[in-house]
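# nightly structure sweep
# worker-07 picked up a monomer target from the shared queue
# config: single-sequence mode, recycle default, output format = structure tokens
# input follows
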Amino acid sequence: VQLVESGGGLVQAGESLRLSCAASGFTLDDVVIGWFRQAPGKEREGVSCISSRDGSTYYTDSVKGRFTISIDNAKNMVYLRMNSLKPEDTAVYYCAVEALHYIPRATVGPGLLAPGVPDYWGQGTQVTVSS
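# output follows
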């Protein structure tokens, strides 16, 4: 299992970025993938997750309405579209495998955004938002 993130960079507040996560060693059928972030001096926090079977998604409150997670099974890619970026979004962003099996829609929620849940992590991509 390998995950490789890309798409980070330096942007100004209010601008957008799209992060990509290339998955290899497994297919994105019946999996749950999450995006996490870690700012300097802070603990890693869950941002969003998606179930590939039914498209169920969950977002942490601070990004609801601004971030969109999506999955492209044919390309084995997961994306995080980030709009209206704020300086407090500055962090290293990681994608992670939450589960290599189906999880019911009702379970796709905050519990999956605990940093101890994922089994596999990418190396991260830096997002810096200037004010």
